[in-house]
Design brief:
heterodimer, A: mainly alpha, Cytochrome C Oxidase, Chain A, two-stranded antiparallel sheet, 17 helices, globular, B: mainly alpha, Four Helix Bundle (Hemerythrin (Met), subunit A), 8 helices, 2 strands, 78% helix
């Protein structure tokens, strides 16, 4: 393989996307996907902390059976604002808008996304939506639950629902435009030789995610718009007193908000699919099945929404169908888990920090996914519906899955983003702290839910206290686990060792661009003539003869 | 990213740029289908539930104005298509002429919509406290045909016995009417803004057989907005018409 790019020993300081231009204007008016990714990184981190503060207050409040911290009304607002900030303003944009934005053009060998200005526009839309929501939080908060069920949200709630609904409506367009940009980019901007089945699995996962974004988000946008109009002008779309149908709201809401879970988890799966072959030095097992299962999850994910409504009223046959379809999602999810495991089998596994996150992801996602099957079961769901079992289940998916993947991805690509290495043992320690803290926080909630503690209540019977205290203790460990990466990522930007072009080394095209990449990503348009994750025929990776390199297919 | 002539820096060739723009617009239109889709679903379910109220509501719409507007909008789609064709074959003057024609027809449509909304306002058919389906038959204007009013009165009486809450359910019809046509009108206004921009650019003679992507993708958008109306018109005006 020839080396048309900058060789790794290239010493003179090159102009990269970080030092190409300076000044606040050059950031706020940038159309460079890498800079926009960093704008998103800062803003989603901000919302993560806003949501995190609410979570902390919830857990402190639940230390004692009668509630330790706030009034019942405030408690309702805390869990609502926690959900709104975390779901709409952190989890949904996190991996796609930060890592996806940064990496997709690099991974497919493009100079930028297809529509750089729209990319910047979507960040501004996100910020405007975020301001509306912060205004709602600041002027009394809202207490409807993140689900905005009508007629509570449209008629009865005495809190700042309208600005929050407007904010989430606006923010939806940010998500739609990001998805649109990714789909078009993946279709039309691939470098010569970068065929569909040479795309990194991260890109496949984002393609599937983008499908969900463009098909689901408009539906929740119109639904929230109608609910907002209903509240502002006393219309009756979803108000039974005026002949409207509140169940219709729930159907429309979950038509987006269930697939939204896949917006959160699919990109995370994409990250794990990159980390595992790289740090096990082995081609991924079943490439096309992992790629296809991403699409399958996106498609089947659209057909399961009414499993949120088993007890709110739907026909038995509808419930049976939705229960069955919900079980189906387990198949493509299991395909991924088995393929990752098979990739690890006889791999040359290194315990670098991203790998710890990837392994943590597999375990936690497994628990989250399997408990999802409990909830898809019609009979069992009557018992555990609206209990802490549900809370624990979706936190295993969203925090154990999506956030673990996000952090794993940040650790994996931080050397590319900043050209700096973070402290190795400290970052491993942080990953372990996170894993322990997470399980201590949420595993007791499975038991609490199974014993019957309902969600969204500000008090609980005294016999549940031990488990609640365990959960709160876990949350404080978890918080430490989040603060540590924040600290050392910031620290290593200045004091970290230089990473170089391809520190792992990994096979993707993004690692053939200089670190940090120049504004136009590649000095020469790359040409791809290798298969993905193929460590064997890549002498350019600099894996010395005798270096730990796993046999391509185990020992078969 | 720098721009060389008509080619933006992130693209390699004009074909790639054109392909991306067209695909982007198609994907956007898919999201628009789902955006309107929520409203159509709400309409279908409520029409099924409150058949009488929706029938009466539909009958109060002015079919002449609605029909006129439908013709106007289809005409504007024709002129838009002609503008795209003119750009493709390089007739620069025709591009501007057809774009101006499209904009004018679009403005006519919006003007007629204003007249229709005003009518609903006069007839107390705006959802809210003043809403009353009987208002028009009880306070007919001089231009109304007395025979027609008598027929309508009789029909309303019957409907009120069948559905005593018909005023509430009628409000649902009109909430949906205003939401659907209002959202459609908003899309027309956005389209008109895009047309103004295209007309400005076309005056400078920028659209050539090699570079006409903006005309083409705004055309796609305009046709989509037209198609939404093609569905709205029968669902709101025609489906329950019985006189």
């Amino acid at each position: 393989m020839s080396e048309p790019f900058l060789p790794p020993q290239h010493k003179e300081p090159h102009e990269d996307y970080l030092n190409a231009t300076y000044g606040i204007r050059s950031w706020l008016l940038t159309t460079d996907h890498k800079r926009i990714a960093l704008l998103y990184l800062v803003s989603v981190t901000f919302f993560f902390f806003v949501g995190g503060i609410f979570a902390t207050m919830i857990r402190i409040h639940l230390l004692t059976p009668s509630g330790a911290l706030v009034t019942p009304e405030t408690y309702n607002k805390l869990f609502t604002m926690h959900g709104v900030a975390m779901i709409f303003f952190f989890l949904i944009p996190s991996i796609p808008a930060v890592l996806g934005n940064f990496l997709i053009p690099l991974m497919i060998g493009a100079k930028d996304l297809a529509f750089p200005k729209i990319n910047l526009l979507s960040w501004y839309i996100y910020i405007i939506g975020g301001c509306f929501v912060l205004y709602s939080f600041g002027t009394g908060g809202l207490d409807t639950g993140w689900t905005f069920y009508t007629p509570l949200s449209s008629i009865y709630s005495n809190s700042a629902v309208t600005p929050a609904v407007i904010g989430i409506f606006i923010n939806g367009f940010s998500s739609i435009l990001t998805g649109l940009n990714f789909i078009v980019t993946i279709h039309t901007m691939r470098a010569p030789g970068m065929t569909w089945f040479r795309l990194p699995l991260f890109v496949w996962a984002h393609y599937a995610t983008s499908l969900v974004m463009i098909l689901g988000t408009p539906v929740v946008a119109i639904t929230l718009l109608l609910a907002g109009l209903e509240r502002m002008f006393h219309l009756g779309f979803f108000n039974p007193a005026l002949g409207g149908d509140p169940i219709l709201f729930q159907h429309l809401f979950w038509f987006y908000s269930h697939p939204a879970v896949y917006i959160m988890i699919l990109p995370s799966m994409g990250v794990v699919s990159e980390i595992i072959p790289t740090l096990a030095r082995k081609p991924i097992f079943g490439y096309s099945f992992i790629a296809g299962s991403s699409i399958a999850i996106a498609v089947v994910g659209f057909l399961v929404w009414a499993h949120h409504m088993f007890v709110t009223g739907e026909s038995t046959y509808a419930a049976l169908t939705f229960s069955f379809l919900s079980y189906l999602v387990a198949i493509p999810s299991a395909v991924k888990v088995f393929n990752w495991t098979a990739t690890l089998y006889k791999g040359s596994i290194s315990w670098d920090t991203p790998m710890l996150y990837a392994l943590g992801f597999i375990g936690l996602f497994l628990i989250g996914g399997l408990t999802g099957l409990f909830l898809a079961c019609l009979g069992l769901d009557i018992h555990i519906h609206d209990t802490y079992f549900v809370i624990a289940h979706f936190h295993y998916i969203m925090v154990g899955g999506a956030v673990m993947g996000y952090l794993g991805g940040l650790h994996f690509w931080w050397p590319k983003i900043t050209n700096k290495l973070y402290p190795e043992s400290l970052s491993r320690l942080a990953a372990v702290i996170l894993f322990i803290g997470f399980n201590l926080t949420f595993f007791p909630q499975f038991i609490l839910g199974y014993l019957g503690m309902p969600r969204r209540y500000h008090t609980y019977p005294p016999e549940f206290q031990v488990l609640n205290v365990l959960s709160t203790a876990g949350a404080s460990i978890l918080a430490l686990g989040y603060l540590l990466p924040m600290a050392y990522f910031a620290w290593c930007m200045r004091y970290g060792k230089t990473a170089g072009m391809n520190p792992w080394p990994a096979t993707g095209l993004e690692w053939k661009a200089p670190s940090p990449p120049p504004t136009e990503n590649f000095l020469v348009t790359p040409e791809v003539n290798w298969e993905p994750y193929d460590f064997h025929s890549r002498p350019d990776l600099g894996l010395a003869a005798g270096a730990p390199l796993a046999p391509a297919h185990g020992d078969d | 990213m720098h721009r060389t002539g008509e080619l933006y820096g992130q693209f390699e060739t004009l074909e790639q740029q054109k392909e991306s723009a067209a695909l982007g617009m198609w994907v956007f239109l898919v999201t628009e289908v789902l955006f309107f889709g929520g409203l159509f679903l709400a309409y279908a379910i409520n029409r099924h539930a409150y058949f009488e109220a929706f029938g009466i509501g539909s009958n109060t719409l002015d079919i002449k104005l609605g029909g006129f507007n439908t013709v106007v909008l289809i005409m504007s789609s024709l002129t838009m298509a002609m503008a795209v064709w003119s750009a493709q074959v390089g007739k620069k003057r025709l591009v501007s002429i057809f774009l101006i024609a499209t904009l004018s027809l679009g403005t006519v449509f919006l003007g007629v919509k204003v007249i229709e909304y005003k009518q609903k306002f006069d007839h107390h058919l705006i959802p809210g406290h003043g809403f009353d389906m009987r208002y028009r038959t009880e306070n007919p204007s001089q231009t109304d045909d007395p025979k027609e009013i008598a027929l309508e009165k009789e029909e309303l009486g019957k409907a009120f016995t069948q559905d005593p809450d018909i005023n509430a359910h009628g409000q649902l019809y009109f909430s949906l009417y205003f939401a659907m046509t209002g959202l459609h009108a908003l899309h027309m206004i956005v389209g008109a803004g895009l047309l103004v921009w295209l007309i400005k650019v076309s005056f400078r003679g920028r659209f050539t057989p090699q570079y006409n992507t903006p005309v083409e993708i705004v055309g796609l958008y305009w046709h989509f907005v037209d198609i939404v109306w093609i569905y709205l018109f029968p669902l709101l005006y025609l489906i329950d018409r019985h006189r």
